[in-house]
Design brief:
heterodimer; A: 113 residues; mainly beta; six-stranded mixed beta sheet; five-stranded antiparallel beta sheet; 0% helix; B: 113 residues; four-stranded antiparallel beta sheet; 4% helix; 51% strand
Chain lengths: 113, 113
């Protein structure tokens, strides 16, 4: 049972345009969400997070939006740069989840120069 | 600099053999985790430990074993009972996943030959 879903396995975006990565979740107990970026043969690195008490969090070129009623969050990257080409994982946690993160299946983002 | 180290980076194992993957952190994190990454399946939790001498099964623990004798170390043994061990294994640690997320190691690619 995949509780965190990233329905787009891949996405290609022109350099300088906006990249939008989407994530859906089914567990209504999730209340904290994170995005990770992963290059091949490396461990994921933390990008940005959002608590369920907010609907938006921004950090430089990266913004995460949370729609709790739709159980949906999205990561916006603008402007997109070649170095953003990577796999992006959405992750979620709940207060009673023993600090575990549940990850989505990932979206491979390719930035076209 | 503090960090989390996984070794080796690449590992080959013959069918029927047990193999142990190393994970060491000097971040003074209490919690440590093992994930497995397979194409199209994201990151799946194998085992996690929130304190020394204690650990819990994750979603796919069958065929794996762990120990947590020291705060810094959380080795993972892939036993011969694991039906499909070829994968990319990621170790992570955290001082509070809900606020700080995980710090990941660079991973170990295990191939069964």
């Amino acid at each position: 049972d995949q509780q965190v879903k990233q329905n787009s396995p891949s996405l290609s975006v022109q350099e300088g345009r906006i990249s939008i990565l989407n994530c859906d979740y089914t567990n209504s107990m999730f209340d904290y969400f994170l995005w990770y970026k992963k290059y091949p043969a490396e461990g994921p690195t933390f990008l940005i997070s959002i608590s369920s008490i907010k609907d938006k969090n921004e950090d430089g070129r990266f913004t995460v939006f949370l729609n709790k009623s739709a159980k949906h969050l999205s990561l916006h990257i603008v402007p997109s740069q070649p170095g953003d080409s990577a796999v992006y994982f959405c992750a979620a946690s709940s207060k009673n989840g023993n600090e575990k993160l549940t990850f989505g299946t990932g979206t491979r983002l390719t930035i076209i120069p | 600099d503090g960090g989390i180290t996984q070794s080796p980076k690449y590992l080959f194992r013959k069918e029927g053999q047990n193999v142990t993957l190393s994970c060491e952190q000097n971040l003074n994190h209490d919690a440590m985790y093992w994930y497995r990454q397979d194409p199209g399946q994201g990151l799946r939790l194998i085992y996690y430990s929130q304190i020394v001498n204690d650990f819990q099964k994750g979603d796919i623990a069958e065929g794996y074993s762990v120990s947590r004798e020291k705060k810094e170390s959380f080795p993972l043994t892939v036993t011969s009972a694991q039906k499909n061990p070829t994968a990319f294994y990621l170790c992570a640690s955290s001082k509070g996943a809900r606020v700080y997320g995980y710090t990941f190691g660079s991973g170990t690619r295990l191939t069964v030959v």
